[in-house]
Amino acid sequence: MKNEVENFLKYSQSPLRYSAIVLAIDRLGGKGKLNEIVKVASTLSGEDIPRARAYEMLNRLVDLDFLKKDEEGIYSFHEDIPNRLGVVKAAENAFRSR
Question: Is 69 exposed, middle or buried (CB count within 10 Å of its CB: 0-12, 13-18, 19+)?
Answer without folding.
Answer: middle
